[in-house]
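Regression test case RT-17, inverse folding.

Input:
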């Protein structure tokens, strides 16, 4: 997977991104609405899982790289998930989660929406995804704004150990 936008390269994650990803998710502010910081080991496992998912069917989180600096700034992409009973839909239902996560230094520069629009179009046109959903903590205003700008539609609110969340689905 390899995409280019005005300011970003978006490509498959690789094990070489593991240390940069570990640094990203060690940051408590980045992980504020995502259950808290992750250990280096957990971060490395996550990247390996994404690499395997990408190789299996292409449905994965992707690395987002700033063109001018060549820096890995975070991820944007998909994850096939299976619902549990605590999240307000029938247990056993699977869906495609659409999500993103970036280092603080690049927030509020429009990268989040730039990547989300490109990756969502890729998911629809190249992966032919259906049933895409996005979820964000009720207080995560930046993430909620990206979801709204994509045209996703509010479905319901629910709570997990990480707090109150809002669930949206892609438009019909
Ligand atoms: C949430 C996050 C992805 C936003 O990324 P970003 O690159 O800063 O977003 P953008 O610059 O593209 O902004 C998109 C919109 O959200 C708004 N926005 C961004 N951060 C905001 C904030 N903290 N409060 C209010 N609005 C915000 C922007 O103003 C813009 O709206 P506009 O076009 O109407 O002005 C980023 O803050 C992040 O990675 N946070 C940590 C990880 C995380 O929470 N991921 C999402 C989990 S659901």
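Golden output:
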């Amino acid at each position: 997977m390899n995409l280019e936008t005005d300011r970003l390269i978006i490509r498959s994650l690789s094990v070489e991104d593991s240390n940069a990803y570990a640094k990203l998710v060690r940051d408590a502010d980045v992980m504020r609405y995502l259950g808290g910081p992750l250990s280096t080991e957990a971060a490395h496992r996550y990247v390996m899982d994404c690499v395997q998912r990408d190789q299996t069917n292409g449905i994965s989180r992707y690395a987002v790289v700033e063109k001018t600096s060549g820096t890995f700034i975070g991820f944007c992409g998909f994850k096939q998930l299976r619902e549990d009973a605590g999240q307000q839909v029938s247990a056993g239902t699977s869906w495609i989660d659409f999500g993103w996560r970036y280092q603080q230094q690049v927030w509020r520069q429009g990268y989040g929406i730039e990547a989300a629009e490109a990756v969502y179009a890729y998911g629809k046109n190249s992966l032919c995804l259906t049933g895409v959903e996005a979820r964000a903590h009720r207080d995560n205003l930046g993430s909620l704004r990206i979801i709204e700008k994509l045209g996703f539609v509010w479905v319901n609110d629910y709570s997990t150990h990480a707090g109150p969340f809002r669930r949206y689905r892609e438009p019909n």
